[in-house]
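A further point concerns the way the authors explain their paired sequence and structure data. Since the whole study asks how a given chain folds, the encoding of that fold should be made plain. A single example would do more here than another paragraph of explanation. An entry of this sort, consisting of the sequence and the corresponding C-alpha cells, reads as follows:

_____
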Amino acid sequence: MALKKKPVTGMKDILPREMEIRDYVIGLMKETYRSYGFLPIETPCVEHIENLCSKQGGDNEKLIFKILKRGEKLKIDTAQEEQDLVDGGLRYDLTVPLARYYSNHSSELPSPFKAMQIGNVWRADRPQRGRFRQFMQCDIDILGEAGCLAEIELILATTAMLGKLGFKNFTVCINDRSILKAMAAYSGFAEEDYDNVFIVLDKMDKIGREGVAGELEEMGYPKENVEKYLELFGDALPGVEGIRFLKKKLGLFLKQETADNMERIISSVEAAKEAEFRVRFDPTLVRGQSYYTGTIFEVIMDDFGGSVAGGGRYDKMIGKFTGQDTPACGFSIGFERIVMLLLEIRFREAGGRKRI
C-alpha cells in the first residue's frame, strides 16, 4: 500500500513563498516586541494533562490532542478511565504553559516580567479559512503588574507591530469582565446564570439584538430582565462616552475603579498610538476563555471579517500553581490569519498570479 503524501487533516505543508512571509513576520514581531522590553522565552509543546484540563481553557479543553503513557506505564488491559491511559497533551495555547513557567521560575525573573513567546499550538478543531489544527501563536504577556499600564503597553506594542506590517484602519475592541457582570446584575440575572447569558450575548454581531432576546427568553429568563439588559447595549456609546454612560446608569453595580481604568486605557492608547487604528469600547465583547478576570480586548480587521488578535487579564491563573495570585495580562496575535491576509494582498498585487 502506498504511503499518504498529503498532510494530516487540519495541518499543512508550507511552501517557500509562504515561508518567506512567515519568517519576515516573526522577525518583525521579535524586533518590535523587544523594543517594548519583552523578553523571549520558550516552553515545551507537551504539557501535563492535569494543567491542560484545569478548567481554565474553556472549550479548548475539549480539543486537546492527548498523549498516551509510554512503556510500562501504559497498561491498556487494566485501564478503567482515561486518566489511566493519558498523562500529557499537546498545548492548545501558550497562556497555560506560561503560567506554569512563571510559577516555576519567578525567583529567576524580573518583576514585572514581560514575556514574548512564539510557537506552535494544537487543537482538534474543525479546519476552516484561517484556522488549522496546528498553528503558530505569538504572545506577549506582562506578569506582576496590577495596574492598567500593562493593558496600555500590550495594546500599543501589538498595534505598532500591525502598523509596521502595513495594516491600517483596524479596530481594537475593549471591554471588561467586571462590566459584563455589572450589566447582568443590574438587569436582574442571577450570578450563576452569567456565563449562559454571556454565551448568548457573544452572538450579538451574528444574530442581532432580537436574536439575543429570543434566545434568552427561550432559555426561560424573564422578559423584563432581558429587555432591561438589552436596553443598555442600545444606549451605550463606543468610546469613553460609553464608559461614562454605563458608570452613571449602573451605579453601585459597577466599581468606580473599573470604569476609570477603562477610560484611562482608551484615552492613553489614543494619545500614544503609532499606527492608524480605532479604539472602541464594546460592551458585547465577551471572549470565551474562562481564565479572563478583568480587561479583555480584540483586534478586528475588515479585510478578514473577524478577529486577528485577542487577549486580556488573567489574574487568577498563576495562583492555581503557586497558591498566591499574581497579576497577569496578555495579547495574542492570530499569526496564521495575518500571514493569510499578507499572502492574499501579495497575490492581488501580483495581478492574480500564483507567484508572490
User: Anything to note?
Assistant: The first strand starts at residue 39 and ends at 40. Confidence is low (pLDDT under 50) at residues 352-356. The two ends are 37 Å apart (CA to CA).
